[in-house]
Amino acid sequence: MSTELPDELLSPETRERPGGLLSKIDPHLVLYHDPRSVHAEQYRACRTNLVALNRAGAPWAVVVTSSKKGEGKSVSASNLAACLAELPGQKVVLVDCDFRAPAQPSIFGQEPGDGVAELIDGKTSLPGIIRPTLIPGLDLIHSGVEPPSPAEMLGSERFANMVRELQRRYTWVIIDTPPVNPYTDACTLSGVTTGVLIIVRIAETARELVERAMQAIKSSGGKVLGTFLTGVPPDRDDADRQGYYRVEGQEGEAAYLEAERARARERAEKRLRKQELAYIKRKRKDEDPDDGPPV
User: Fold this and answer.
1) How many CB atoms lie within 10 A of CB 95?
2) Most buried residue among 79, 150, 223, 291 by CB atoms closer than 10 A?
3) Where are the domains of the chain?
4) The domain 28-251: what is its CATH number?
């Protein structure tokens, strides 16, 4: 006789997940655990700016990195990918290319397995390394076994072909890479992707270090899309503004203004809904006044 419990009796921590994996989602994936939180809204503000930059709506491959270790780039990459997948009609894939310290399998509660390294070595196929996640519309690709030279692998033609194929299959390709200092992986990738998003921990990272990282990416032929601040206190009135800002001249300024207009429209719609509800409530009260207790 089977001793397995039905799914409805299993806790979220032990219930069987897509792909046959037992999922233990990291609490830092706020788009999954607390999608209405201030931190989740900060990632959505970043998403709004990225979408505004991508005016043509073409498939984009975005590198997520940082200037140094410990700034929250992997958590930011996972949450950004998750909130992009919230958009209607979007297909998103998150690729873990931090071979030295892969974090995405742990964040999504998956056991590490074959990934980018095995694909580039010809040991498996692309469909064989694409894994579903609990976020609808979001797939994950693991890094795989650390190669002897990660930067050389990321700079290969086979990896560029993989990125192009993913762009044919997905709307957004988010690539988690090691910090720019001391590694060159993100700089190597910047030339074969749409652009780079740099994660910066507020009040902890020196401005000079961030500027050097930006310069290294630009010198490699890449484009810096912007920076996203982590560690912003949730009680700050301007938390959404501090979450993401532009660094790319007129194009970035236009995208920022478009994002501001989108946020203004959302606020106006909320005010209108409140006014409508208040009006309906008053009208119902006028049509059915309380004349006192029944006789």
Assistant:
1) 29
2) 79
3) 28-251
4) 3.40.50.300
